Amino acid sequence: MCELTKEISPQSKTVVGGYGTAVAGVENIADHVCRGEGAQFMRRLLGEPEDRPLKHPRVYNTGGETMGVQLGTAGLIAAGMGCRRGASSA
Prior knowledge:
Elements: H1 2-8, E1 15-17, H2 26-29, E2 32-34, H3 38-45, E3 65-66, E4 69-70
Parallel strand pairs: 1-2
Antiparallel strand pairs: 3-4
């Protein structure tokens, strides 16, 4: 995906995080590799203060479906909990 991004948009910078950091040679493909906490990494990368409190934005849903879940008027915070194929336990 990094190679395709550079092909389509050579001026774009790529950041790889999560499971992608386990790919051999990822440092040679991506412009930046985030191992660890992502918000702090991105703040450091963008030159923003790293010690600011994290504030999750309010997300409003007027009904419908999000990621296959019928929400009605409730909210949903999706978090990465590992691969459904068991990669996180490998």
